[in-house]
Amino acid sequence: MKTYITTALILLITNISFSQQKIPDWFLENMEQSVGTWITDNATYQNENEPFDQYGMDWQWGIGKQSIIGKLYGMINGKKQGVFWEFRQYWDFDKNKGIVAQFGGDGTVGIGPMIIKEANQTEMIQEFVSPNGNKTKHAHRSTLKDGTLTTTSYDILENGDWKKRRSYIWHIIKNKQDIDLGIFSISLAVKDIKISKNFYEKLGFSMIDGNLDQKWAILKNGNSKIGLFQGMLPTNTITFNPKDARSIYNIVTKEGISITMSKGLEKKEGLASFLVTDPDGNPILIDQH
Question: What is the 8-class DSSP label of residue 243?
């Protein structure tokens, strides 16, 4: 009997000791949403010593989807210029904390916990040690939601105060096969908005949007759409109306396509548009309403 009880206790202790711990849902969700390629504009901070017009981050799953691995690099005209930092984000079961470790090209190492502040918002404090032994503390506050990542970095001073450094708005890049350009239409540069409107109405089109006093009109016939613009466009223009022009902008700039014009892309949401030109000189307008 005594042997039986002893054996039962050993089995119970063993089951407790080796029971599977779980990564918290908020941390798993943060990693899931982080995986992909992210691009941010660096125009605010660009200078002679920092020539990068954009920064990029690539995040991918580690083995078993228990952690994610990332890289941060600079970009000029859509092309990578080298990796500055490598990252590893994982859950430390011993400390019961989310951890982010990063490794710089000069040998500097930073590591520290990530905590959840509120829905979609995290905070991270890391201690950095450089090859010469110098130690500094830095912090990040991030909001990750619907393919947009807003980050703000801080220096932590010796007295414990936080000194704000930089803020960036990052947008995730979808795979090429996931690009949704939205509704296709043609935008015509017309000489007289009323004469052109009447002509296309005779072809079966009906005006669905626009303002003739402002010299523009949108007409539709079934699945076909035509935009008429007097004095607004230099030439006839292919037009797409996607739901997310910002993601498409990030993709085409990464591919090295030159942007002729852009508007509203610096904002997190709302109206946004940009113009590119194909190899034969045909303008293409990506216009998010």
Answer: S
CB 5 within 8 A of CB 13: no
Q: Give the global pTM.
A: 0.59
The CA distances from residue 128 to 8, 15, 91, 174, in Å, are 48, 39, 19, 32
Assign residue 36 a region: left if phi > 0, alpha if psi is -120 to 50, beta otherwise?
left
Report the sign of the C-alpha dihedral through residues 196, 201, 205, 207, in that order.
positive
Encoded amino acid at 181, one letter: L
**Nearest-angstrom CA–CA distance, 26 and 146:** 15
The answer to whether the CB of 149 falls within 8 A of the CB of 143 is yes
pLDDT band of residue 4 (cuts 50, 70, 90) is very low
- What six digits make up the tokens of 109? 């190492």
Separation between Cα atoms, residue 66 and residue 162, nearest integer Å: 31
| Confidence at 128, pLDDT banded by 50, 70, 90 | very high
Rounded distance, CA 134 to CA 28, Å?
33
* Cα 243 to chain centroid, rounded: 15
Q: What pLDDT is attached to residue 16?
A: 43
**Which token pair is 35?**
């995986």
User: In a 10 Å sphere around its CB, with 0-12 CB exposed, 13-18 middle and 19+ buried, how is residue 111 labelled?
Assistant: middle
Question: Rounded to whole angstroms, how far apart are CA atoms 277 and 255?
Answer: 14
Burial of 39 (0-12, 13-18, 19+ CB in 10 A): buried
Report the DSSP beta bridge partners of residue 104. Answer: 85
- H-type alpha helices, 124-185: none
